[in-house]
Design a protein that fits this description.
The chain is of the alpha/beta class. It contains 12 helices and 9 strands. A 9-stranded parallel β-sheet has the order 5-4-3-2-1-9-8-7-6.
Length: 268
């Protein structure tokens, strides 16, 4: 059983939902990423999504786009991101790690080389934002061969037929984009999210993580009542940006934010 599947199974046994924070690798500097990852776990993270810096992150709003830019200033490559995961695994062998990014860096490295290197480093899943499942067969085959879960996005506009197709290809969990927009968007209708999640569950038993627009503990708790996991990204990345000149303060701040989110979700 994969770490991701085991994580969701354990949470379900305890009637809890997964807290899934996102940060961009290398932001504000590569030397601080691993410490931030450990702080997220200490704060209550169940699964971590680690962003691979890319020059044109089309699905991301200004907050995360600037995080990519800060990371790229320090030449945070895919190879370096995998080295960060490997270092993280020296102390943490349990927390599932999902790489989230865009196809270009994976193509440059080569699917087979990437999949093997990711598995060796301790990666558990890969979410490639700009790769539709219809064109993912080669990458998906390499990922599954090395025990990695291919994770795909579902949107408010995704049709039932396409939901069936996406969930038939995916494993680990699916990521439901709760808003028609980019990361960091503002308006989240929890009732609409609940309706859409019910439609997804009608055709798939994969866990569903919900992201985009979750900015605080109150929203996280509301979404947790319906989702299997809550993904929080921009709210964390914006705090990292504010503290980039004092990076030693970032782990403590992230730990505190995660504890507030975890407490609110568990109370829900």
């Amino acid at each position: 059983m994969s770490r991701i599947k085991a994580c969701f199974a354990t949470l379900k046994q305890h009637n809890r939902k997964a807290l899934i924070p996102y940060i961009t690798a290398g932001d504000p500097h590569p030397d601080h990423t691993v410490g931030m990852l450990h702080a997220l776990v200490e704060g209550g993270a169940d699964i971590i999504e680690l962003g691979i810096p890319f020059s044109d992150p089309m699905a991301d709003g200004p907050t995360i786009t600037k995080a990519h830019e800060r990371a790229l200033v320090h030449h945070t490559s895919l190879t370096r991101v995998l080295a960060m995961v490997k270092e993280f695994r020296q102390k943490d062998t349990q927390t599932p790690m999902v790489l989230m990014g865009y196809l270009n860096p994976l193509e440059i490295m080569g699917y087979e080389v990437f999949a093997k290197a990711a598995a060796d480093a301790g990666v558990d899943g890969v979410l490639t934002v700009d790769l539709p499942p219809e064109e993912s067969e080669c990458l998906t085959a390499c990922l599954k061969q090395h025990g990695l879960d291919p994770i795909f996005l579902l949107a408010p506009t995704t049709t039932p037929e396409r939901i069936r197709h996406v969930t038939s290809v995916a494993s680990g969990y699916v990521y439901y984009v709760s808003l028609k927009g980019v990361t960091g968007s503002n308006t989240l209708d929890v009732d609409e999210v609940a309706t859409r999640l019910a439609a997804i569950r009608a055709v798939s038993d994969l866990p569903i993580g919900v992201g985009f627009g979750i900015k605080d503990a109150e929203t996280a708790a509301a979404v947790a009542r319906h989702a299997d996991g809550v993904v929080v990204g921009s709210a964390l990345v914006s705090r990292i940006a504010e503290l980039q000149q004092v990076p030693e303060a970032i782990p403590g701040v992230l730990r505190g934010i995660l504890r507030d989110l975890r407490q609110a979700m568990d109370a829900a």
